[in-house]
Amino acid sequence: METVYYLIQNTLPVAIPLLLVALGGMFSETSGVVNIALEGIMLFGAYFGALFVYFVQDSGLDPQTILILGMLIAAIAGLLYSLLLSFAAINMKANQVITGTSLNMLIPAIILLFSKMYFNSDGVTTSINFYIQKIPVLGDIPILGRMFFQKTYITVIIGFILLIIFTIVFYKTRFGLRLRACGEHPHAADSVGINVYKMRYAGVSLSGILGGIGGFFYSVGVMDGNVNGHTGVAGFGFLALAVMIFGQWRPGKILFASLFFAFLRTLAYSVSLIPFLYNLGINQTYYRMLPYVATMIVLAFTSKKSRAPKSAGIPYDKSLR
Amino acid sequence: MGEYIIEMLNITKTFPGIVANDNITLKLKKGEIHALLGENGAGKSTLMSILFGLYQPDSGEIRKNGKPVKINNPNDANDLGIGMVHQHFKLVDIFTVLENIILGVEPNKMGIIQKDEARKKVLELSEKYGLKVDPDAYVEDITVGMQQRVEILKMLYRDNEILIFDEPTAVLTPQEIRELLQIMRGFAREGKSILFITHKLNEIMEVADRCTVLRKGKCIGTVNVKDTTKEELSRMMVGRDISFKVDKKESKPGEVVLSVRNLNVVSKSHGKNLVKDVSFNVRAGEIVCIAGIDGNGQREIVNAITGLERPTSGTITLCGHDITKASIRERSIRGISHIPEDRHKHGLVLDYKLEENLVLQRYWQPEFQNKGFIKFDAVRKYAERLIDKFDIRSGQGPITITRSMSGGNQQKAIIAREIDKEHELLIAVQPTRGLDVGAIEYVHKQLVATRDAGKAVLLVSLELDEVMDVSDRILVIYEGEIVGELDPKTTTLEELGLYMSGAKRDNAKEINDGREE
Fold it and tell me: From the candidates A172, A173, A177, which should be mutated to test the interface with B, based on the most B CB atoms within 10 A?
C-alpha cells in the first residue's frame, strides 16, 4: 500500500505538465494549426518562470505565492513565444511543421547562451522548496487525502482546476464551438461570419499559455524548480503531442492518457522500490525508456483510428473554395 | 419601398486573366423565384458570392429596397437578411445538426451556449416548413438530402428573407428535387425572395418566375419564364442551338467483355459492406450505366475493376481472363481504358505538358522509349495527331502545361488518351462532371462512337438525363447493391428515382441470374 501511495503521489506532478501541454496542443490543432513547437514553448515558459523564482526567492515571499506568480510569468512567456508560430503559420501561411521545429531548436541554444553569459552555468538553479507535506483539511480525508493532498505540489490542484475550466470552454461555450469549426472546416466557419484567422490566433495563443504553464510546472514538479538548457524538458512537449493524439483531441481522454504516461515514467524511476521489478535484474536505465517506447507502441496502434481535425496543418486561404 | 428588394447594378469583377462578371445587372423582386442560368464559368457563382459578401466587386452597386448597401463579408449579408445554400455544403461533419445551424449566431449566456433554446427554435422551423431533421444527429451520419435541409434551416434560423440556392438539385434524387421545389414555392408564397442558380432548364420552367441568363461573364438578358421556352433559354445560355437528345442507333450487344461476379468490398475504416454481392456483365457494343446517388458503392466497384483497390471477395473477368488480382498495368494492357471520376487527381499530372499526359498509358512501349530513354520526337508526333483528331484546344499545343487548360479540354485529353489506346472496355466515371453543354455533347458522342466501334462501355453517372439518354441498359445501385435493371427506352425518370432512393427494388436474384450465361 505504501508503494501505491508513493506511485500516485509521484505520478500526479508528472502528469499535470503533460495534461496541460496536451490540452494546449488540442486547442491549437482544433483551431487548425499543428503545434510542433510545444517543446520549445514549454522550455521558454519554464525558463522565464524559473528566472522569476530565482530573483524573488530571497524576498521572503511565501513559496506558493511565488509559484503562482511564476506560473503567470510562464504563461505570458509561452503566449509571446507562440505568437511567432501564429504569425508564421497564420499570416505568412508558412509550413507549420518546419516553423515549429525551428522554434524548438532556437530555445535550448538561447538558454545555454544566456545562462553561460549571466550565471556561468547551463541553466537556472533555484533553491526554493515548493513541496507541500500536507494540505490542511483535505489532506486528512482517509485514503483519498493521502493520495491526492499529501506530499504533493500545488500544481496538481491548479492543473485539475484548469482542466475543468478548459473542458467547459472547449465543449460548452460559443468560443469552443467556433474554434473547433475552424480546425475542421474553416470555409464553413467563414461562411457564417467567423473570423478564421482570429480564432486560429486564439487557439495557438491558448496553447502558448498552457504550454508555458506546463513547462513551468514541469520544472517545479519534476526538476525541483530548475531549468537546464541541455536536458530542456526531456521531450515532454513531444510526449504531450502523443498524449493529445492518444487522447483523440478530447479533454477527458487526454487526462487519461497523461496519467498513463506519467505513471509509466514514475514506475520507471521507482524500480528500486518495487521488489518484483527490482529482482528481475534488468539495468534500471532500460526502464527509463518505458514512457517513450510506450508512446511508439500506443501511437502505432491508435493512429489508424485517430481522427485529427481535418484542416489542421493547412493554412487557411479564403480564395480556395 | 420600390418594386425590387435587391438590385445588383452594373457589377464588374475581374480575376487575374479573366473577367468573371462584366457589367451585370440583376434585379430581384420581393416574393419571386428568380433563376440565374448559365454554363460553367459563366459567372453565376461569382455574382452570388459578391451578393453574399465573399468577394468585393471592382465596380457596380448593390441596393436593398432602393438604398445602396455595402456587403463586405457574410456577416453583412446576414444582417441584410441574405442567406445562401452553397453548392458544396458548408457543414462541419463532426458537429451535430443543431450545432451547425447555430454556428456563428449561438444563443448564449456569458459565452455558454444555450442549446435547449436553440433546439426549440429549430424544431419549430422544421415543423413549420416541413424540413425534417434530427437536431442531435451528426452531420457525417445523415443523408445528402438532410444535409441540404440543414443548410436551408441555417438560413431560416437567421431569419433571412433573401435566399440564394446555388445548384441545389445537383445532388438530389427526382423525388427530393420535387420536394425542394415545393419548399421553395412555399417560401415565395410567404414573401421570401429566392435566387435559384442552376443549369437545368426543366427546373426553371417548373418553378421560376423570371430568369436571368449569363454567358461568359456577360448578362444576356432577363426573361419572364412563362413567356419563353426551353429552347429559347438554352440558346441564350450557349449562344447556339443544342440538341438535347443523344443521337444513337440501336445497340447490338456481342460477346461478354466484362463479367463481375459476387463482388464484395468491406470498408477498411468502419467495417461496413460498401459493395454487397454485386454481379453483372458488360457486352461488346453496349453502354451499361451504373446509376445511383453519389456514395452508394459506385466508386468501390470502379476501383475494384480498374485495380485501384482490391475487393474483399468476388471475381472480375475481362474477355475470359480472371483479372481480380492483376496489376493496374496488366489490366490496362488487357484492354481496360478508364476515364476517372476526378480528372485532376487520377486522370492527369497537372503540371506535366499536354504531350506527356497523352502518352501516360503508353510511354513504356517500344514506340516511345529506347532503353529507358523517352523518344520525344515520337511523343510529339503522337500528341499532335491526337490533338488534331480529338480537337483538344490549348494555348501552346503539345507543350501546354495541362493545369492551364480548361476543364473541357482536359477531359478531351483524357478521352483521347484512353480511347486511342487499344481497349476492349471503356470505363467512364461521371465523364461530364463540371463540363458545359457543348463539351457534354462532345463526350456523349465519343461514348456512343466507342460503342459503335464494338467496344464495351461501362458508364457511371449521377446525372439522370445522361443515364437516360446515353445508356443501353441501366443498373441501379443503392447502398452497395444492384437493386434494379432498367431499360432506358421503357422506364421513366420517376421510376429510376424510386430505385435510386431505395423506395423500390427488384429481387436481387432475378437481376443477377437473368444475365448469367
Answer: A177
